[in-house]
Amino acid sequence: LGATRNLRRALSSLRSPTELDVQHFASIVGDGNVLTSPTDLEPYNTDWMRKYVGNSKLALRPGSTAEVSRVLAHCHAERIGVVPQGGNTGLVGGSVPVADEVVLSLGRMDRVLSVDEDSGHLVCEAGCVLEALQAHVAARGHTMPLDLGAKGSCQIGGNIATNAGGLRFLRYGSLHGSVLGLEAVLADGTVLDGLTALRKNNTGYDVKQLFIGSEGTLGVVTACALALPRAPSSVHLALLGADSYAALLRTFGVARRRLAEVLSAAEFLDRASLELACEKLDGVRDPLPGRPCAQYMLVEVSGSDAGHDEAKLSAFVDEAMESGDVVDGTIAQDGAQSAALWRLREGITEALGRTGRVYKYDVSLPLAQLYDLVEETRARMAPHGALVSGFGHLGDGNLHLNVCTPGAFDADAAVAAAIEPWVFEYIAERRGSISAEHGVGVMKPHVLHLSKRPPVIGVMHALKRLLDPHGILNPGKVLPPPPEDERPWRSAS
Ligand code: FAD
Ligand code: 2HG
Ligand code: ZN
Description:
The protein is α+β, with helices and mostly antiparallel strands. It has helices at residues 2-11, 19-29, 38-45, 65-78, 130-138, 156-162, 169-172, 175-178, 208-211, 245-259, 271-280, 306-322, 335-346, 348-353, 372-381, 413-419, 422-429, 454-467, 488-491, and strands at 34-35, 59-60, 82-85, 102-105, 112-116, 121-125, 179-185, 191-194, 220-227, 234-242, 263-270, 295-303, 326-331, 357-364, 387-393, 398-405. It contains 19 helices and 16 strands. The strands form three sheets. The protein has a seven-stranded antiparallel sheet with strand order 13-10-12-11-15-16-14, sandwiched between helices. It has a five-stranded antiparallel sheet with strand order 5-6-9-7-8. A four-stranded mixed sheet has the order 1-2-4-3. A hairpin with a 4-residue loop joins strand 15 (387-393) and strand 16 (398-405). The model is unreliable at 488-493 (pLDDT under 50). The site of zinc ion has 5 residues, from strand 15. Zinc ion is lined by residues 165, 392-393, 400, 437.
């Protein structure tokens, strides 16, 4: 109910685009880049999970920053809502309209502008697909500072807008560090050209940081400069099994100590997640079929000396097995075996999507308590016949808790009521985060206060009013309703 009220309020100052607007937009982006037929619009209106469905009658595919600027200037002047959209792989409903906002799809803006191999950076447009960028920079001896299961579709602009984490966060850190420069267009069409690639630049407020993780509510990211690490010349991967989360955690401690500078990923999945991936995904098999385990951990090492890195990994595995905490394991012997192990981990989201209705929670909690939430949820949801899966980025303290029940979304209100708001309150009581990496989107504005204090939310509202005074950008997303006297349409002239 709170969410519906929030949407109504966010939309009440905006109007639907008319035929005249469509003609104006066509004069900016060209007839061929204006989509109006229901069939063409269907993928732009539906999110990856098929959970959130918008009702946009218009998607625009601009080809340049100047075109984005002119489209936004018109929408700002005319109070027309806009949803920036990248690869539409977001998992919180942020990338699709809540009503009939214009979808601004960045996919045509997919040019790599430069790669500097000496200093290690890339400058590219926002619509570049992550996997294409990875191939481009790999051919030049570098690697992207992020990797995620949606790499084949997600765009770098979407990654920046969500501050995506992923599988190499442990090694390369957040996009708040890797984004060196940014070009973004504000709601009124103003272009902020911050596209420098300087490593050091302490010249007052670092304005670009505002757009990283703002989920299209403060501006449209049109281009970026990213720091590129050198590609490691040696990469090795192991999958280890343990009988408890406590044993897995101790093993992670050993990994940090023994692998130190070569540790590049530490991911985990529980038995339910592994079984689901094996059942639902073609070609995915249990890598440790002889000994079912309660928990599994993928440990990757990357470096520049294959012999040294391999020896470190083997010594770590030996110590972990001798301790008794690891009861089975395998080290990938070649690229194909590594790819199969990664397919198992990266495929869990796809496998979950094939079970029916999935309630997703993307949580940060103190590492020692991370898996308690899965066990408590499992006990709580047992009477509802739900399958509960827990996996995620162990090294980052980030759990993906998924609750699956067969059937369509919202078919059974009792299931939803058994999970929410309990799960968000559980996280808040432990001062965790209700959104570790996927963002807030349309799914969580009503519970934002459980992770952020009122003065902080107040600053967020103030920034929104400053940068998007008419509230045209991604209405109903991220922010809860502003206090009565601060609603944008009250001060709109
Ligand atoms: P979209 O889904 O199109 O948009 C996401 C949000 O960003 C929306 O609010 C949208 O309005 C905004 N946006 C998009 N482009 C722009 C732009 N150019 N300017 C301004 N705003 C914009 N996420 C992780 O963090 N880690 C993971 O490991 C991970 N794995 C995933 C695996 C799978 C199989 C799937 C389906 C998703 C996964 N995700 C993950 C979630 C998702 O892929 C990321 O959030 C991704 O960064 C979204 O990129 P996108 O281009 O698809 O953006
Ligand atoms: C991952 O880490 C993604 O695989 C998706 O962030 C998580 O499906 C999910 O819950
Ligand atoms: Zn994740």
